[in-house]
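> Could you send the Purple acid phosphatase prediction when you get a chance?

Sure thing. Input:
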Amino acid sequence: MRRASLLSPLLAAAAAVVVAVVSAEPASTLSGPSRPVTVPLGDRGHAVDLPDTDPRVQRRVKGWAPEQIAVALSAEPTSAWVSWITGDFQMGGAVKPLDPSTVGSVVRYGRAADSLLQEAAGESLVYSQLYPFEGLQNYTSGIIHHVRLQGLEPGTKYYYQCGDPAIPDAMSDVHAFQTMPAVGPKSYPGKIAVVGDLGLTYNTTSTVEHMVRNQPDLVLLLGDVCYANLYLTNGTGADCYSCTFAKSTPIHETYQPRWDYWGRYMEPVTSTIPMMVVEGNHEIEEQIHNKTFASYSSRFAFPSEESGSLSPFYYSFDVGGIHFIMLASYADYKKSGEQYRWLEKDLAKVDRSVTPWVIAGWHAPWYTTYKAHYREAECMRVEMEELLYSYGVDKMATSHADEAGHCPDPASTPDPFMGGFCASNLTSGPAAGSFCWDRQPEYSAYRESSFGHGILEVKNETHALWRWHRNQDLYNTVGDEVHIVREPHKCLIDSTRLAY
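Output:
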């Protein structure tokens, strides 16, 4: 979707997931499969970016005061990350990076706003986006800080300040966040918001406002964050970069200040609600020396080391009775690669008597009947799907599907970062047969082209509720919903530790 959070989740549970039209009593996966449903295309409106003159994206702090404050989870609920930026970015032909050692990385925290007696220190860095071509502007970031808080109590509200207490006016206001429930089969967060392709448009503001009204405990952002790569370095943007600029630019440019605008706009949410991010194609952002993903890798904190992946592109974490796995569509996913080997080890370690639910998320969908990116992730599916099925992964969520329409020739759609063309493998898989927008396959239970967000509520070891909230509806109105019921006794599994 063009920068406004159209999420097309693939729900893969122990039984086939069936999503039905909303009724008084939500449908259940136990009642399916049912006849596929397609909602007629409507006018979603045009995604218009927030301009740099919008007060919500402008820098509101002075000196070394923190901004773009965000909380992320660690691998377990006893730990969390706090991130922020000090100092302003620079744009120009010649830019000189700030010295990260200029400002300390300190978080003071505690269980009362007036008693921040605990303190943790972390690391800081800057990154640059450089283009070795005449006329293009370079970028270097403010100082990005990441501090890990440890020894936290699960299910507890913590207050915190971040910054450098040794420098006058270099500490933030007091913020607060709630740690996740303790790991265990009887413990679950209230609501988990799921969004993708969020961007920074007026549609984004509607999505975020609707999402906040639902009071989620955790947000999963499945790639395509701010769409800085739809801009030239002079700040000129377009809906379609390749259509507008590709023939006139020596490299795919980006306008990195859009990242700072996004961080400022999102701070009221990210400073209070933990957000976990995984990369999308719009985070690739090629620059000098073929370097990619510089902004994504620098701006967010990930529980990579804690979960044994050592990569910002894939990692895992536990929340109550849920084991979350975030995978990379744009890193090596072959069976011989590091990501696959890490995934195999991570799944083998899961004890379903402790975390009954295993939920995976990534950016590019394996099954989609949307025109854009059609069968683009087929190579990833061929490599990884069998492994996820063999360990009985309960639910998978993706984004990336941009628009409805008739399907193109699959050979014309592979993304060079996705590993090539593997669509012929579909003929023997669960999605065998032809499918396009006007020929809905059996595995596609419900589809609708709308901007919005999803809310997942895991109730207990076997039951969860998935709801889709559309931007065009009133707050707290449900556009679609389904009960997801785990049936582990029906799954093909590789380990006896997965059943109980």
